[in-house]
Amino acid sequence: MANEILAAVLSFFIPGLGQAYAGDIKKGVIFFVIAIILAIVSFFTAFLLSILSLIFAIYAAYDAYKMAA
C-alpha cells in the first residue's frame, strides 16, 4: 500500500511520479509527458512575448522620436 502523502508530494515536484509510485505507471508516464509539453509551450510562449515586447518598445521609441522631431 502506497503512502498517500508521499504520492502527492512526489507528484507535486515531478508530475506523474506519484502516480507511478502508487502503482499506475502508464498514468504516471502520461502525466509526465503532459508536464513536459506544457513546460515547452510555456517557454516558447514566454520567448514569443519577449520578442513582441521588444519589437513594441523599439516601435514606441521610434514613434516618440518622430513625434519630437
Keywords:
rod-shaped, about 70 residues, single chain, 3 helices, mainly alpha
Structure description:
With 69 residues, this protein is mainly α. The longest helix is centred in the last third of the chain and has 44 residues, at 25-68. It is built from three helices and no strands. 86% of the residues lie in helices and 0% in strands. The protein has one domain (4-68).
Question: Mind sketching the topology for me?
Answer:
Elements lengths: L3 H10 L3 H5 L3 H44 L1
Oligomer: single chain
Taken together, the total number of domains comes to 1
Mean pLDDT across all amino acids: 94
Shape: rod-shaped
Order of helices and strands: HHH
Helicity level, as a percent range?
over 70%
Q: Note the main sheet.
A: none
- Classify the beta-strand content into a percent band: under 5%
How large is the count of helical segments?
3
Q: Kindly provide the radius of gyration, computed on alpha-carbon positions and rounded to a whole number of angstroms.
A: 22 Å
Helix-and-strand structural type:
mainly alpha
End-to-end distance: 75 Å
Please report the total strand number as a whole number: 0
Which regions are unreliable across 5 or more consecutive residues at pLDDT < 50? none
What's the short version?
The chain has 69 residues and is mainly alpha-helical. The chain has helices at 4-13, 17-21, 25-68. 86% of the residues lie in helices and 0% in strands.
